Amino acid sequence: MHSSPLLLEEPIRISSILEPSKPTFFPAMTKIVGTLGQKSREVDTISRCLNAGMSVARFDFSWGDPEYHQATMDNLKAAIKSTKKLCAVMLDTVGPELLVNKTDRPISLQADTLVVLTPDQNKEATSNLLPVNFSGLSKAVKKGDTIFIGQYLFTGNETTSVWLEVSEVHGDDVTCLIKNSATLAGSLYTLHVSQIRIDLPTLTDNDKEVISTWGVRNNIDFLSLSYTRHAEDIRHARDFLSKLGNMKQTQIFAKIENIEVNFKILSILLGLKHFDEILREADGLIFSRGNLGIDLPPEKVFLFQKAAIYKCNMIGKPAVVTRSDAILLGAETLRGLYPVETIATVGKICAEVRAAIKVKASVIICFTSSGRAARLIAKYRPTMPVLSVVIPQLKTNQLRWTFTGAFEARQSLIVRGLFPMLADPRHPAESKSATNESILKVALDHGKAYGIIKPHDRVVVCQKVGDSSVVKIIELED
């Protein structure tokens, strides 16, 4: 009697789960966006984050001044140089975020007592009074409304976050009943009122100042537009960037986290026009699930997430959220004690998903100048990684000559399954076949260093020769 192949396969599958991941295992298709800050800003820590799999560094301007973030940026540049790892930079705007104005001194809030929220930011924060940065709060809420205050919304840690119920509105002040005892220990606390409209611009004057100084100086690759509510928000931001010279190439990611989009999100499966307009205008989307979990019933968040990511995949734009193009780590790397270990663990989880798929070709190598060809291939979610060889283009504005390509390579670092490298500008890929072969050899060596190409692997190569596109399959020797 022949034994069933299924019975033989099961123990092998179980043993592979029990075995630790091999250190040479090639990187995950999903990218990791790490937020740099208090616990992750030294050169050594950032270097280890890069080696562990971080491909985009996020700078959150909800806290810290530009000088603080510049010192972190300088450390990132040093880490990139020492590790020889490509890393993109994302500037996350503050936007119309409601913040509690307080110092680092812990403030204890007792359940069943009252606390007053006031727009007078000259007053000191105490257990009975919390200054906030929004003068329109008293006009936006009514008796019985729920207000949440916490570090990075929806932390689930009830000792550092608090739920309030509005009991009285008097002038500009809002008196609330504290629903659970908590201690506000850190300096950054966000205030969230479910289902109200915040009458503040998406791109604030403070955001514009940071972008036009810090952003321009550091040649940022991505702008994360917090609290995006309408397609017009993105058009306004893009118009602002277009006037800043080198910021024209910066991609804008719409961060979806507030109720104006969320109510419409519930009908996304019915062909949501509002969401589709945002998706059309943005270069990619970021889903802030913590905020969504406050505005929407928690069980609805994953339904929205699946539908929204499906739409992003269909249109071929990156979606930054769990199990998509990129996973964004906020507090985990910003103030968590184990930023490097977190990135490494998430990377292993993503890689193990990839390990379950057996492929005939180990990698697709795509020669491209704008990055579009490689993105198009990645859009169709091939089971193997795509190595994007970006060929710099020499351009002039009649005043000076510049090479393009660096932006295009770095901006691929947020796209699932895409691993970019920048070719030597002295050897354009469209020239002699010998030059093509030398660039291909460099690309293959790059793939070996990444761990995505091994001896005897089959490799699919896509390149442009003159006006024609050529696809060839090569089998590697030892």
TrEMBL record:
InterPro entries: Pyr_Knase, Pyrv/PenolPyrv_kinase-like_dom, Pyrv_kinase-like_dom_sf, Pyrv_Knase-like_insert_dom_sf, Pyrv_Knase_brl, Pyrv_Knase_C, Pyrv_Knase_C_sf, Pyrv_Knase_insert_dom_sf. Residues 351-466 form the Pyruvate kinase C-terminal domain. It comes from the Eukaryota. It catalyses: pyruvate + ATP = phosphoenolpyruvate + ADP + H(+). One of its GO terms (molecular function) is potassium ion binding. Its cofactor is K(+). Pathway: Carbohydrate degradation; glycolysis; pyruvate from D-glyceraldehyde 3-phosphate: step 5/5. Its EC number is 2.7.1.40. Keywords: ATP-binding, Glycolysis, Kinase, Magnesium, Metal-binding, Nucleotide-binding, Pyruvate, Transferase. It is an enzyme of class 2 (transferase). Residues 30-321 form the Pyruvate kinase barrel domain. Belongs to the pyruvate kinase family. This is Pyruvate kinase. It comes from Senna tora.
